[in-house]
UniProtKB/TrEMBL annotation:
InterPro entries documented for this protein: PQQ_b-propeller_rpt (IPR018391), PQQ_rpt_dom (IPR002372), Quinoprotein_ADH-like_sf (IPR011047), WD40/YVTN_repeat-like_dom_sf (IPR015943)
Protein name: Pyrrolo-quinoline quinone
Coiled coil feature spans: none
Species in which this protein is naturally found: Natrinema pallidum
Pfam families membership: PQQ_2 (PF13360)
Length: 402
């Protein structure tokens, strides 16, 4: 069974559980009060784990919400943790990463980062990645030993994403073929200058992992996962929101300047740029097979574009629609269960939307803003609200509203 063990479910930050039967309608299974607004939960076996802005990390029974244990610190723990069968990796905003026993909450090791933690943790191939005020660090997951730190001019924000060269083999490979210059120039001429990509590496090995990250100053970078050596950098138009997403050989990032970029994962070259008047506020969720991206913004829309040239995906009676309009600004990254998009907004509403026709299926009202990203499981999702509560919503996979 695939579990939701880190931010947006996996090292790619994909936000997808297409193997599930998505919720046609939902009901509340349970709600648990916490101390402090929660971050994004993660799941493993029969437990849901979530940290809060008040320094508490909870392990709760997935079925009932009953508390198994609580780990308390003096610093916020609402950055999304990572869980495996052996360890729960937890970061605090003062720059500490701890490994806990997921069954008991007992601390196994603790490591201090070079700077305050600014991003969700990410795990792949025995390496734990942490973005902080001074850059990006890789730790040995077993011991907490620092393997390398790549310093950046501004804080690394949003969750890092990890992939290897095989990601580029499915189409228009990131291992060699460059994007079409005609597409690039028509979509984003302002971004295509000689400084856009610094020393691109076109020899990305098929099994060589890279870690991709964004910074508060508006830089996207690709590093060799084993050494931290820089492969390429590319500028965005503002602070990267939510972190990069890897899909089909591309790196997708949205930024607070209002630009959605699709970059070649091998070289950093731009495939397309989609621009809006407001800032993007979440990471991108990509349905590669449907050639569709979803991303939240300050304007209260979950924007939808195609993955070819970044044009608006949805059509209205007279003109194209920029996306799906919600009731308020979006802080919760969109995720997809089966064929249902789940996304929350600042008014406290969580929506279920059919990804094929963008029609709303259901709406759940929490007591306050939803800023964390839902965690998906079979016939259940878990999401927090700023009312200091964690909600579990459930559905019957055989029941559809139509």
């Amino acid at each position: 069974m695939t579990e939701w063990t880190q931010f947006k479910g996996d090292p790619h930050n994909s936000g997808l559980r297409r193997d599930l039967e998505g919720p046609g309608r939902v009901s509340e299974a349970w709600t648990t009060d916490l101390i402090g607004p929660p971050g994004s939960p993660v799941l493993d076996r029969d437990t849901v784990y979530v940290g809060t802005a008040r320094g508490h990390c909870y392990a709760l029974e997935r079925e009932t919400g009953r508390r198994r244990w609580t780990f308390e610190t003096t610093a916020a723990t609402d950055a999304t943790p990572v869980v495996t069968h052996e360890r729960l990796y937890l970061g605090t905003d003062d720059g500490t990463v701890s490994a806990l026993d997921p069954a008991t909450g007992e601390e196994r090791w603790r490591t201090a980062l070079p700077g305050s933690l600014e991003a969700a943790l990410a795990l792949s191939n025995g390496r734990l990645y942490a973005g902080h005020a001074d850059g990006l660090s890789a730790l040995e997951a077993e011991t907490g030993t620092e393997l390398w730190t790549h310093e950046t001019e501004s804080a690394v924000v949003g969750a890092p994403a990890i992939a290897d060269g095989r990601e580029g083999e499915q189409r228009r490979s990131a291992l060699g073929e460059a994007p079409d210059d005609d597409i690039l120039e028509s979509e984003a001429p302002s971004l295509l200058d000689a400084e856009r990509v610094r020393e691109p590496d076109r020899q990305w090995g098929a099994t060589e992992e890279r870690v991709f990250a964004g910074t508060a100053a508006g830089t996207v970078l690709a590093l060799a996962a084993e050494t931290g050596e820089e492969a390429w950098t590319a500028p965005a138009t503002g602070a990267v929101a939510g972190g990069p997403t890897i899909a089909d050989g591309r790196v997708y990032v949205g930024d607070e300047g209002g630009t959605l970029l699709a970059l070649d994962a091998g070289t950093g070259q731009t495939w397309f740029a989609y621009e809006i008047g407001d800032g993007f506020t979440t990471s991108v969720t990509v349905l590669a097979a449907a050639e569709t991206t979803f991303i939240g913004a300050d304007d209260g829309y979950c924007h939808a574009t195609d993955t070819t040239v970044g044009r608006r995906k949805l059509r209205g009676w007279l003109f194209s629609r920029k996306g799906i309009e919600l009731d308020g600004p979006i802080r919760s990254c969109p995720v997809v269960a089966g064929d249902v998009l789940c996304v929350g907004d600042a008014t406290g509403s969580l929506y279920g939307i059919d990804v094929d026709d963008a029609e709303p299926l259901w709406q759940f009202a929490a007591d306050d803003a939803i800023s964390g990203t839902p965690a998906l499981a079979a016939e259940r999702l878990y999401v927090g609200s700023e009312a200091e509560r964690l909600h579990c919503l459930e559905w019957d996979a055989d029941e559809r509203p139509y």
